[in-house]
């Protein structure tokens, strides 16, 4: 999952005595085996950043509730336009408002959604003293963004799917990670959970003989771009590309990165609203030279 979330749960919360176990999000038996008598919360991200792995929300909610725990879902990638975890049993749903909710890279914001009771009893007291309060102007920008969320998500998803198809057929690409593709390991589950759409983020591995060449080639593709922006943000109407191993997941150890499946040749693309052929052409500048 998102690098900062791994750090927050694994290191920062550990200082307060909060124990955690990390499991493969797609392996239900691993989740089941990790539950202990003191388990209070299951936390999943679906689709995950940046590999777009999809976990079974309903099954994890049942697992959590049978263990007397709550289930939280990071719904950043799918957004409420494509995926609604609450009717599937999730207790807490969170969003980076910085991403698709605003939709144009203008503010930093976040949203945490839960029942009125959870919000009133657990979150409001911390929110008030902890200072996690959004400035009024930024809140207004996010609200304006929400007015077009559904239209943006659908349009950006169509473009992402076209790009995923094109990348999957490109001879310099080893593998494409995109829930909308039939080759995605959880394709059917994703289609059931995400309104039949794959979302607007994909990632792909460039073909290479080893990690060093993979990093070199990924950097070459990113350096050759003229239209796309090199940015670790996502959810913008402008297409953004990033190298997760050196940015969003750069603070992890190489062992943690390998466990997360994030290779040196991995490029993440958050597809915006440009003409699909312009985006393809921009990535082809680098990819066509190998
Ligand atoms: C970006 C991101 C976050 C964090 O969002 P911020 O707005 O930077 O706090 C959390 N989860 C996922 C999946 C993300 O992509």
If you had to describe this structure to a student in words, what would you say it looks like?
The protein folds into two domains: 3-146, Aspartate Aminotransferase, domain 2; 149-287, Aspartate Aminotransferase, domain 1 (Alpha-Beta Complex), CATH 3.90.1150.10. The strands form two sheets. It has a five-stranded mixed sheet with strand order 5-6-9-8-7. The protein has a four-stranded mixed sheet with strand order 1-2-3-4. The mean pLDDT is 96. With 290 residues, it is of the alpha/beta class. It has helices spanning 3-12, 28-34, 57-66, 79-82, 97-101, 116-130, 136-146, 149-168, 187-193, 211-223, 254-260, 276-287, and strands spanning 41-45, 70-74, 92-96, 110-113, 173-177, 201-206, 229-230, 240-242, 266-270. The structure holds pyridoxal-5'-phosphate. Residues 2, 5, 45, 49, 74, 76-77, 96, 98-99, 108, 110 line the site of pyridoxal-5'-phosphate.
């Amino acid at each position: 999952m998102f690098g900062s979330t791994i750090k927050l749960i694994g290191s920062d919360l550990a200082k307060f005595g909060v124990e955690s176990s990390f499991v493969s999000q797609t392996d239900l038996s691993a989740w089941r085996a990790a539950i202990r008598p003191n388990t209070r919360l299951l936390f999943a991200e679906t689709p995950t950043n940046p590999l777009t792995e999809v976990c079974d929300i309903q099954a994890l909610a049942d697992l959590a509730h049978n263990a007397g725990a709550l289930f939280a879902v990071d719904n950043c990638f799918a957004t409420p336009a494509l995926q609604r975890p609450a009717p599937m049993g999730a207790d807490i749903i969170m969003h980076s408002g910085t991403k698709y909710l605003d939709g144009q890279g203008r503010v930093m914001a976040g949203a945490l959604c839960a029942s009125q009771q959870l919000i009133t009893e657990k979150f409001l007291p911390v929110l008030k003293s902890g200072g996690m309060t959004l400035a009024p102007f930024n809140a207004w920008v996010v609200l304006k963004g929400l007015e077009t969320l559904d239209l943006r998500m659908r349009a950006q998803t169509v473009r992402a799917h076209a790009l995923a198809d094109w990348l999957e057929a490109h001879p310099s690409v080893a593998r494409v990670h995109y829930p909308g593709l039939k080759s995605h390991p959880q394709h059917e589950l994703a289609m059931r959970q995400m309104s039949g759409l794959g979302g607007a983020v994909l990632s792909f591995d460039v073909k290479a003989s080893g990690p060093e060449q993979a990093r070199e080639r990924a950097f070459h593709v990113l350096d050759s771009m003229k239209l796309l922006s090199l940015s670790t943000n996502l959810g913008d109407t402008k297409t953004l590309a990033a190298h997760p191993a050196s940015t969003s997941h750069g603070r992890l150890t190489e062992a943690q990165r390998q466990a997360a499946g994030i290779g040196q040749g991995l490029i993440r693309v958050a597809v915006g609203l440009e003409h699909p052929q312009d985006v393809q052409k921009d990535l082809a500048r680098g990819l066509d030279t190998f």
